[in-house]
Amino acid sequence: MKDITQHTIKVAEAVRKWLQPDNSELKKAIEQTVDERLFSFEDIKFQIRALKENIDSGQIEEWAERAGLGKNKHSVGEKVLCLHAGNLPLVGFQDALGTILSGADYFGKLSRKDPYLLITFLEMLKASGIETEIKYSTDLKDFKNLNADKLLFAGSSESVPAVKNELKRLGSISPETELVIRTAKFSMAYITNEEPEVITDLVEAIFRYGGQGCRSVAAVVSPIRFNNLKCHFQDYIESFWLKNPQHKKPPEALAYQFAYNKAIDRPQAWLDDFLIQESEEFPELDFTLHWIQGDEEKLKELKEKFGSAIQTIYTAGEKIDGIETEFLSQAQRPPLWWEPDGVGLFE
Questions:
Q1: CB 292 within 8 A of CB 256
Q2: Under 8 Å between Cβ of 236 and 267
Q3: CA gyration radius for the chain?
Q4: Which of 11, 29, 164, 254 lies 20 to 30 A from 225 at CA?
Q5: Does residue 38 form part of some domain?
Q6: 299-315 burial, b for 16+ CB within 10 Å, e for fewer?
Q7: 56 falls within a domain
Q8: Domain-located, residue 336
Q9: What domain range includes position 84?
Q10: Pairwise CA distance, residues 109 & 170, whole Å
């Protein structure tokens, strides 16, 4: 059996090598991703920089230690099938790294929306000499009869039944397969002041990646009226769109929502393809922020109302009784060991 401690060291070394500035394969993958208008260069650069900061600070080793990986706890000999989303650049990195770090054999269904970046990481690991099987494809049929021990999947709750049925039909999973399915849709923030650092963190949490991630803030509860902050949002949006000419365009439904809001006199602001509105409704539309004027009780009410669709609730450090929160500044820079939907990889 492989030595998990030595395995962790090899994996960490390979990941650091992958993130070096002279990695020509990663550079090519970035260029191809940008050229095909899958993600903007700015968003890819942001994601890679955040990963590098985490890894350079020793988070791979700390993650293994936190998880208790070692002689008596590992996944050596298990087959883990990862169905990766493609809503953010390298969004599947954590599942891939965690699976391989555990000692399990990794089988990754890559998203056609992000097919190039993760491959460079996986190939670097394969070249490192670790004793782990690594296979990947953008075609689910390539995992026919895999009979995986564990499935990691992130997507909409509506898609779960169809995905499970197809995997069972292909023999990719069996009735004994452990299913780790994440379906949270968005995050919320609670802010109580207009300090520059807080507003900077807030606009980053809202607008980075066009608000497409489950950690992206789609609803804000605050005693502050959003009109007080409209200029801050406008400045960021104008800068973001200039830096990201390849950003994904919002759905046509956004224009209809704007017209509807206007008809019912709902306070709102149209910010160059991003809509902010005062609304306590479920944040259904992409490229939309719901601003709710209220206090901690209102936050608790909405948390109960939206339920498991909420990934995380952020504050600028305020503690709220009965609600687990994270720092707003970490919204788009989570540590490697953060747990999507509150479910860890090594449970």
A1: no
A2: no
A3: 21
A4: 254
A5: yes
A6: bbebbeebeebbbbbbb
A7: yes
A8: no
A9: 4-183
A10: 14
Residues 137, 98, single domain; the answer is yes
329: nearest Cα among 214, 208, 163, 150: 208
For residue 341, being part of any structural domain is answered with no
Q: What is the token pair recorded at 82?
A: 């990862």
φ/ψ region of 302 (left if φ > 0, alpha if ψ in -120 to 50, else beta) reads alpha
The two structure tokens encoding residue 220: 């804000």
Q: Which of 129, 162, 183 is the last residue of a domain?
A: 183
3-state secondary structure string, the chain? CCCHHHHHHHHHHHHHHHCCCCCHHHHHHHHHHHHCCCCCHHHHHHHHHHHHHHHHCCHHHHHHHHHCCECCECCCCCEEEEECCCCCCCCCHHHHHHHHHCCCEEEEECCCCCCCHHHHHHHHHHHCCCCCCEEEECCHHHHCCCCCCEEEEECCHHHHHHHHHHHHHHCCCCCCCEEEEECCCEEEEECCCCCHHHHHHHHHHHHHHHHCCCCCEEEEEECCCHHHCHHHHHHHHHHHHHHCCCCCCCCCHHHHHHHHHHHCCCCEEECCCCEEEECCCCCCCCCEEEEEECCHHHHHHHHHHHHHHEEEEEECCCCECCECCEEHHHCCCCCCCCCHHHCCCCC
Task: Walk along the chain (347 residues) and give the pLDDT tens digit of each residue.
Answer: 578 889 999 999 999 999 999 999 999 999 999 999 999 999 999 999 999 999 999 999 999 999 999 888 899 999 999 999 999 999 999 999 999 999 999 999 999 999 999 999 999 999 998 989 999 999 999 999 999 999 999 888 888 999 999 999 999 999 999 999 998 999 999 999 989 899 889 989 998 888 889 999 999 999 998 887 777 777 766 666 555 655 566 778 888 999 999 999 998 888 767 889 999 999 998 889 999 999 999 999 999 999 999 999 999 999 999 999 999 999 999 999 999 988 888 76
Number of domains in the chain: 2
